[in-house]
Specification:
By secondary structure, this protein is α/β, with parallel strands linked by helices. 49% of the residues lie in helices and 14% in strands. The protein is built from seven helices and five strands; from the N terminus they run βαβαβαβαβααα. Strand 4, helix 4 and strand 5 form a beta-alpha-beta unit. The structure holds 5-O-phosphono-beta-D-ribofuranose. The site of 5-O-phosphono-beta-D-ribofuranose (RP5) has 9 residues, from strand 3.
């Protein structure tokens, strides 16, 4: 049974927030993926949000760009925690989507992630941390994930110390 529901406002958002799906997959968290628009399919969106708890969902990740009202609309229908992921647009570069999702008036919160690749990944990690409150196994996986992140940075620093910054930058730039 899925524990996380990821609702995309459009299929055009799917590839841009793939990191969200990949991260949940890597952590072996059961999730469902839905395309439902707050303005093009309002009744469907309402249904998905309204029935989420019955489906066993504990956290909803809502992903949208532009006016990006999807996370706020979903948060207004359910008391499950909603994490919003802003998709960068060609017009506002993502700041439009960020502000649309972030600036919820008092009473109906949406946890807002960054736009860009980090947003989808962080949304998944944040959802896992919420689920981890009731599942120590998820917290153990999170600790391993963070240890891996840390060792990658330490490895890079060791390499920088050994080869010097000019060679390091040349390597980064593929020279
Ligand atoms: C939003 O409008 C979607 O979340 C998407 O980011 C944006 C554009 O949607 P499409 O016109 O590509 O379907 O609702």
């Amino acid at each position: 049974m899925p524990e996380v529901s990821i609702i995309f406002g459009s299929d055009s958002d799917l590839p841009k927030a793939r990191g969200c799906l990949d991260t949940l997959q890597d952590f072996e968290i059961p999730f469902e993926v839905i395309i439902s628009s707050a303005h093009r399919t309002p009744d469907e969106t309402h249904k998905w949000a309204k029935t989420a708890e019955e489906r066993g969902i504990k956290v909803i990740i809502a992903i949208a760009g532009g006016a990006a009202h999807l996370p706020g609309v979903i948060a207004s229908i359910t008391t499950l925690p909603v994490i919003g992921v802003p998709i960068a647009t060609n017009i506002g570069g993502g700041i439009d989507s960020i502000l649309s999702i972030l600036q919820m008036p008092s009473g109906i919160p949406v946890a807002t992630m960054p736009a860009g690749k980090a947003g989808g990944v962080n949304a998944a990690l944040f959802a896992i941390q919420i689920l981890g409150l009731q599942n120590p196994d998820y917290i153990r996986k999170m600790s391993t994930y963070r240890a891996q992140l840390a060792s990658k940075v330490i490895e890079k620093n060791n390499k920088l110390s050994s080869i010097g910054y000019t060679e390091y930058i040349d390597n980064l730039e593929g020279k």
